[in-house]
Amino acid sequence: MIPDIIWYWQIVVDMHISDKQTDSKANRLIDPFNRKIEYVRLSVTDKCNLRCFYCLPKHFKDFEQPAHWMTFDEIERVIGAFADLGVAKVRITGGEPLVRKDLPDLVNQLSQLSGIDDLSLSTNAVLLSRQAQVLRDAGVSRINVSLDTLKSDRFTQITGGKLQPVMAGLMAAKESGFAPIKINMVAMKGINDDEFEDMVDFCLEHDFTLRFIETMPIGGVGVDASQYYLSLKQVKNKLADQYELIPGVMPGGGPARYMQLKNTDLRIGFITPISQHFCETCNRVRLSVDGTLYLCLGQDHKYELGPLLRQGISDDGLKNAIVEAIAIKPEKHEFRSNPGQVVRFMNMTGG
Ligand code: SAM
């Protein structure tokens, strides 16, 4: 009798576990290279209030028409479908996400979706000082700020904007309790390669995490990226002359490989899409403001969800479309072997 009861209980437990797996949305998004897609980078606008010379040409005006922007409700539907398929992580980006009107309302909607447990934001921080607290209250948990220089004049040369509001935005983010705050610095030969140590000191002082990024040949912005490309191996060697670096770890660190400054909490990440690409572990797709799903930052493979939404696709149809899209995710980018290939600008794909 007793063994029968145990056997019966085991079945009940197994059923419960399998229900729970359905509840917790077991991931159905496996691409042809056996990579689990767990992360969506969501571009809420292709507009930007800066013009970083390596990202977007100065006089670029060919932005998506507002009529084609996904509404907040459409975005919520698509991200909800991803969540049902097992995606738990979403990063809001752009363009510059803070120029999208009422962004905290969208954050509120997304943070209430069942299954989404990590909602983060990438910003240039120009508009952050007034929005930091409200974004945090709405549900943004982590924040990345792009900052290539600490020198005012140089900031203007690189971005066309002013450094002061960015600094104010960063301090507001700190006061609002965002942690970690990651600084993303594109390392560029002859442009900011005399500032790596200053940036390390700045991040130490403010308890920020620092990440260096290699320049990618994206968008054909009218400047030859190879002129200022710097392998991060050189950056690491330069820092190792000055500081004692030990291997570091960072939860949710993405493709960055981390070192830590000995006897401090400072972590320094190195994101090397060119010198040591990480495509074999790529777990992400990018959703643009018009609902186009880009399967790779460096390839043209895409799937247009926007028209399907406007044609009234069902929730199941939407999920099937996403599964179909993942099936065309390419194996890798070709930034190195075919550097002239990508014509899309970063603001369009969602950086
Ligand atoms: N506006 C937001 C920001 O500044 O973080 C999000 C969008 S921005 C396009 C995202 C990141 O892409 C920034 O850190 C920017 O420096 C980086 N980026 C743009 N073009 C790049 C390129 N050609 N190579 C490397 N990084 C690039």
Verbal overview:
There is one protein chain. The chain has one domain: Alpha-Beta Barrel (TIM Barrel). Helix content is 34%, strand content 16%. The chain is built from eleven helices and twelve strands. The chain has helices at 2-23, 72-84, 103-111, 128-138, 152-159, 163-175, 196-206, 232-242, 306-310, 315-326, 346-349; strands at 39-43, 89-93, 118-123, 142-146, 181-187, 209-214, 245-247, 257-261, 267-271, 284-287, 292-294, 302-304. Helix 2 (72-84) crosses helix 10 (315-326), helix 3 runs parallel beside helix 4 and helix 4 (128-138) packs parallel to helix 6. It is globular and about 55 Å long. It starts with a helix and ends with a helix. Mean pLDDT is 89; it is low at 1-23. The structure holds S-adenosylmethionine. S-adenosylmethionine is lined by residues 48, 52, 54-55, 93-94, 96, 122-124, 146, 184, 186, 213, 215-216, 218, 346-347, 351.
Mean pLDDT: 89
Q: Give the biggest sheet.
A: 12 strands, mixed
Count of discrete alpha- or pi-helical segments spanning 4 or more residues? 11
Q: Distance between termini?
A: 62 Å
- The CATH class assignment is Alpha Beta
How would you describe the shape?
globular
**Percentage of residues in strands:** 15-25%
H-E order: HEHEHEHEHHEHEHEEEEEEHHH
Output the CATH topology.
TIM Barrel
What is the fourth-level CATH superfamily?
Answer: Aldolase class I
Quantity of strands, as a count:
12
